């Protein structure tokens, strides 16, 4: 009876060894290589692959990574309706700049005035701060002149208003018709003016780039067109054909200096670029 019990115990021990110890020895390898090969062999042997539980975790992913690129980030919301097609291709070149100046406000054609050189208290003319009133007056010259010389210019009758064809203009004390000061009116066009001697058909005319005289008025003559006139404030007078030039005289003004088309920059430097329209 005792011998039978020993045999039964021995058999049970063998079963335990076979069921537990041997599988553990197989599943617990001694190094990495044997670990990989053991797990691989075990997973291949077991039904369902790695879905069957193992004693040690696998060191490899159970599935092969995907070769597909990740998808783009999802849009926040659905896009609105597609935009309309452009109305047309852009123009090849920008449009040219306007060629004409803005239209000038009207001036009473009956407004009569003297052209007096603008003076201010801080002006230092002829080394003094004394106020001067220099106006344009008609005079006759042996030849066209300007700047410093007067080329034999003279006023044939200083006590009367006597502007004639081809007369030039110089500075004299303002005093109205009794002293021969020229009186003008404006013939206004869209963007420029003719300056006409009152009571005559004579207009201020740019004869050469620098010289000015009186010639019969002609609306089509661009040499008789000037810009800048303003009856309400000081202004410079610029020939349309030479916008860099201003009607002025040479250096500090004084009696007998001829009016010509000089450089605006220098005229402003000497404070001789501006004029006032003084009611006659």
Automatic annotation (TrEMBL):
Low complexity composition bias: residue spans: 70-92
Amino acid composition bias (Pro residues), ranges on this chain: 93-106
The organism of origin for this protein: Phaeodactylum tricornutum (strain CCAP 1055/1)
Name of this protein: TRD4
Domain of life: Eukaryota
UniProt keyword terms in alphabetical order: Membrane, Transmembrane, Transmembrane helix
Residue stretches spanning the membrane: 6-28
Start and end residues of each stretch annotated as Disordered: 63-106
SUPFAM superfamilies, alphabetized: Ricin B-like lectins (SSF50370)
């Amino acid at each position: 009876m005792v011998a039978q019990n020993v045999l039964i115990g021995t058999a049970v021990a063998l079963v335990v060894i076979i069921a537990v110890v041997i599988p553990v020895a197989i599943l617990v390898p001694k190094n990495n290589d044997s670990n990989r090969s053991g797990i691989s062999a075990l997973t291949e042997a077991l039904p369902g692959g790695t879905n069957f539980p193992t004693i040690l975790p696998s060191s490899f992913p159970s599935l092969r990574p995907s070769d597909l690129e990740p998808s783009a980030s999802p849009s926040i919301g659905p896009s609105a309706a597609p935009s309309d097609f452009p109305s047309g291709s852009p123009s090849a070149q920008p449009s040219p700049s306007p060629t004409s100046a803005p239209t000038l406000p009207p001036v009473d054609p009956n407004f009569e005035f003297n052209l007096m050189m603008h003076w201010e208290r801080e002006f230092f003319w002829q080394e003094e701060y004394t106020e001067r009133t220099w106006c344009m007056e008609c005079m006759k010259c042996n030849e066209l002149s300007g700047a410093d010389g007067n080329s034999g210019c003279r006023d044939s009758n200083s006590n009367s208003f006597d502007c004639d064809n081809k007369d030039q203009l110089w500075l004299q004390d303002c005093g109205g018709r009794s002293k021969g000061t020229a009186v003008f009116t404006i013939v206004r066009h869209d963007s420029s003016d003719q300056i006409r001697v009152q009571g005559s058909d004579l207009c201020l005319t740019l004869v050469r780039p620098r010289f000015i005289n009186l010639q019969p008025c002609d609306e089509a003559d661009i040499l008789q067109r000037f810009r800048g006139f303003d009856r309400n404030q000081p202004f410079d007078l610029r020939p349309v054909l030479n916008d860099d030039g201003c009607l002025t005289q040479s250096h500090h003004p004084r009696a007998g200096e001829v009016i010509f088309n000089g450089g605006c920059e220098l005229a402003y430097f000497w404070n001789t670029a501006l004029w006032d329209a003084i009611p006659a």
